[in-house]
Amino acid sequence: MTTVTIRHAERRDIAHIAEWNAAMAWETEQKRLDIHLLTRGVTAVFDESRRGFYLIAEHDGQPAGCLLVTYEWSDWRNGDFWWIQSVYVAPEARRSGVFRALHTAVAQRAANAGAVGLRLYVETENKRAQDTYHKLGMDQCHYLMYEQMI
């Protein structure tokens, strides 16, 4: 039987998180990210806690995945939504409960912190991830996402 444990990421995890983010960008969007810029971006989360935090999943004692939580204030609900971002599970650990454990840990932490909900975005073609999120109790909302790069 395998064991998945979740812990808050530490600075020693920065290189691993950056590598996983680069792998995720390639797998999901065929985007090659600048590893130096990405490493600085990951480090910035550790430098300012207002930006969020990372969780690390360990599968049988080995790092197996991560995610980033960021915050969005909702004046309508007078509370924060916690956004799940930068999700990655190492290929050898997929389908073994790693993301389920990460999701459960985020949901528990969010509830304890008084957050009003969890949100995430997913590529429109990534049906497997969408099915996973649905099975964990997340529903597709009616919003579309737009962006403008500056």
Automatic annotation (TrEMBL):
The keyword Transferase applies. CDD domains: NAT_SF (cd04301). Pfam families: Acetyltransf_1. The keyword Acyltransferase applies. It comes from the Bacteria. PROSITE patterns: GNAT (PS51186). Residues 4-150 form the N-acetyltransferase domain. Keywords: Acyltransferase, Transferase. This is GNAT family N-acetyltransferase. It comes from Dyella dinghuensis.
